[in-house]
Amino acid sequence: MPAQSFQIAKRPSSERGHADHGWLNTYHTFSFADYYDPKYQEFGALRVLNEDRVKARRGFGTHPHRQYEIFSYIISGELEHKDSMGNIEVLQRGDVQFTTAGTGISHSEKNEHPSKPVHFLQIWTKPENSYLEPGYVTRRFQEADKRNRLQPFVSPYQDVVNALTTAETPTVLPDTIGIHTDLYAYSSILEPGQTVVHQVVKSQTPGSATRARRVYLHVIDKAGSLDVADGQSETTTRLDKGDGAFITEVKPSGTIELANPSDKPVEFILFDLA
Description:
By secondary structure, the protein is mainly beta. Helices cover 4% and strands 48% of the residues.
């Protein structure tokens, strides 16, 4: 049996940081707030991945951010966003809201629905330049575009690609949200028995040998399971709802097979990063 071409380290949901504040039930993949684990501080440019459920009529009051780029991936319910740039928006299922905090912004995120909770992912990434002009963008991604395929929703700005890589590397992916670092994000809703294959981005730092990539997978805490394999080995890693996986030493242009072995659809996100 051929050896796997990369390393997989499972991050079980039960081992994530967790806090239940009554109005907020939150799980942390990386050290955040009162949860600290020196083994889980960041993964490349990925610094925060929180899975939050906020009760009706509650939320995060106005608070400041700097330097990071922050996005919210709405799973269910409604999330009202207000910020110091004048943006006011109610986000729903399928929406991805992205903020470049840069030199400084303040915002609030609240669930103003009278009865239903909101379930969303809060994700922070570190840009190449921490002192960017603040910015805001929202884009909706349709269910049909995620079903049984990997739908890209974030990719680097063209100037980031030009600065970090050679002309052999893919440029900005169409119809995605731009980010100021070498990171690509995808989402998928995989039906029972279905398989998708991710071909890892081919990146190369100018003047050096081709560098390995890394991938982070997160299975959204809803239903279904995900099997992860490299297409060469019969060995797979099973991820259930809320689980994640750190995948390292991935060869550029290598493939990762993702299959749903369960009897329910599974929704997940995938980060492909330097």
